[in-house]
């Protein structure tokens, strides 16, 4: 019985191997009676044929190729190197380039241009994106192109949830061609639609953009005395919070307007008088020569949700920020931040890259 079983298994294996050979792509001649039923492939170009002879022939795209081991190894090595470079900075103190600094300035409103026929545009501009309760909202609008525009525009503030109109105002034309008017942020904290209507070429055109109304979180009250602690330049920021809760503060550290680092900190605040310590790690400032004072600008404070479903509330510091004279920074060193979990991930990525 075992002998018959072995013979049966051998027979199945031989049949499988033989069938694989006959169906192989290299063995095209064995099944001419099958290939005759298929459409003939387009003739391939010979080396001595000119491009004009094959210009009209549709060329099939090349088959996808698997990336080589060298390519995968290069990709893994690049990822490992970039990750190792990033984790040398702690999350509370990140180096900042000029381009990144523009994106982290916080409360900005990017003007939105609505295209109009004939290369025209309908643009609405605000001073910022987030407004505090009861703050005035200056609205400016303009229409460019060959369109005929009426001398009257209207602006209204509408709730995104209820679609109720909070307030409307008329925009008046100025000598420079802009239409301007003022609304008041009297609604509850949340997101709102700003709708500006104009008559262009006898038709009503609606321009819609968004803004938010924020509660009054409190007041910034300057800086404390900076100091050096655990390879960090510590910058105390005083803030009088209206309500207790968890808050997150971010700001940019600059020298004469040149960005150095983005600083972040979180703290639970109790009562009105609070201090949040921003820290600039030695990896972003050690070895640098600073002439005069440093600046803390673009302060943004967030009250974090107390429970899932609550919104995050935003507040902002003075536009001019704060200046301070740094202490002696000679003791700071450009050493990577220590994070065991991140170091383990970096080592794992490098180990994978070394296998190729």
How would you explain this protein's 3D organization?
- This protein has helices spanning 2-22, 32-35, 51-54, 69-86, 98-103, 282-285, 340-354; strands at 93-95, 112-116, 120-126, 130-132, 136-144, 149-159, 165-173, 179-184, 190-200, 203-214, 218-223, 227-229, 232-241, 245-255, 258-269, 273-281, 294-303, 313-316, 322-324.
- Strand 2 and strand 3 form a beta hairpin.
- Among the domains are: 93-104 and 216-324, Sandwich (Immunoglobulin-like); 118-214, Immunoglobulin-like, CATH 2.60.40.
- The relative contact order is 0.13.
- The chain is built from seven helices and 19 strands.
- By secondary structure, it is α+β, with helices and mostly antiparallel strands.
- The protein has a nine-stranded mixed β-sheet with strand order 2-3-5-8-7-6-9-10-4, with no helix packed on it.
- The chain is globular.
- It starts with a helix and ends with a helix.
Keywords:
356 residues, alpha+beta, Immunoglobulin-like, nine-stranded mixed sheet, six-stranded antiparallel sheet, 19 strands, 20% helix, globular
Write a brief structural summary:
By secondary structure, the protein is an alpha+beta fold. It has helices spanning 2-22, 32-35, 51-54, 69-86, 98-103, 282-285, 340-354, and strands at residues 93-95, 112-116, 120-126, 130-132, 136-144, 149-159, 165-173, 179-184, 190-200, 203-214, 218-223, 227-229, 232-241, 245-255, 258-269, 273-281, 294-303, 313-316, 322-324.
């Amino acid at each position: 019985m075992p002998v018959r079983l072995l013979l049966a298994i051998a027979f199945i294996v031989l049949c499988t191997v033989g069938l694989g050979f006959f169906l192989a792509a290299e063995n095209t001649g064995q099944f001419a009676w099958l290939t005759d039923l298929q459409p003939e492939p387009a003739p391939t170009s010979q080396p001595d044929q000119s491009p004009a002879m094959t210009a009209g022939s549709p060329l099939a795209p090349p088959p996808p190729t698997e990336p080589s081991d060298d390519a995968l190894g290069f990709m893994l090595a690049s990822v490992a190197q970039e990750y190792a470079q990033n984790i040398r900075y702690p999350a509370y103190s990140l180096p900042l380039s000029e381009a990144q600094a523009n994106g982290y300035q916080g409360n900005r409103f990017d003007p939105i241009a609505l295209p109009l026929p004939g290369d025209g545009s309908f643009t609405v501009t605000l001073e910022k994106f987030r407004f505090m309760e009861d703050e005035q909202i200056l609205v400016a609008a303009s229409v460019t192109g060959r369109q005929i525009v009426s001398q009257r525009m209207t602006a209204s503030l509408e709730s995104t949830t209820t679609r109720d109109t909070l307030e409307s105002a008329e925009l008046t034309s100025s000598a420079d061609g802009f239409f301007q008017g003022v609304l008041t942020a009297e609604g509850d904290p949340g997101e709102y639609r700003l709708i500006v209507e104009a008559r262009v070429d006898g038709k009503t055109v609606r321009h819609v953009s968004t803004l938010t109304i924020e509660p009054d979180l409190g007041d910034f009250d300057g800086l404390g005395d900076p100091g050096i602690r655990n390879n960090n330049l510590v910058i105390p920021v005083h803030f009088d919070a209206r309500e207790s809760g968890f808050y997150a503060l971010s700001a940019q550290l600059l020298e004469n307007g040149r960005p150095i680092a983005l600083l972040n900190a979180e703290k639970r605040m109790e009562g009105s008088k609070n201090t949040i310590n921003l820290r600039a790690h030695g990896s972003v400032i050690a070895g640098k020569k600073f002439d005069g004072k440093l600046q803390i600008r673009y302060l943004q404070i967030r009250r974090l949700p107390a429970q899932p479903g609550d919104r995050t509330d935003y507040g902002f510091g003075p536009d001019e920020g704060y200046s301070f004279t740094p202490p002696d920074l000679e003791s700071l060193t450009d050493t990577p931040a220590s994070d065991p979990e991140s170091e383990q991930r970096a080592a794992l990525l490098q180990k994978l890259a070394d296998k190729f």
